[in-house]
Amino acid sequence: MLRVEHGRTESFLAFAPEGTPIIGAAMLVCEEGLGRAEVAISVRSDYKHKGVGWELLRHVSAHAQVMGVKVLESLESRQNHEAIELERQQGFTASPYPDDPTLVLIRKNLKAD
Questions:
Q1: For residue 89, which phi and psi values (nearest 5 degrees)?
Q2: By three-state DSSP, how is residue 79 classified?
């Protein structure tokens, strides 16, 4: 992950309709200059398969684009087929992660150079 620094890091929380509990969280960490950012998303197990991860990824991607981020990335376990497919449906591409064969680098271009 990129180093977390104030001003280039955003956290997002998703709540159940009644307001509690927190059912998902996302973090966006941008490199200086906003050329690249990383996103990490976690959803409570009892709220998986209900669109929470999809909406968090959509929201964080839109937020990063408004910020001016050019490329949004995420690391996924190669075994996490559902997350990789969800990201592909939102325009991300998957490629092998060079330093660890158990991981996949997910990437989406948000802004043309």
A1: -65, -25
A2: coil
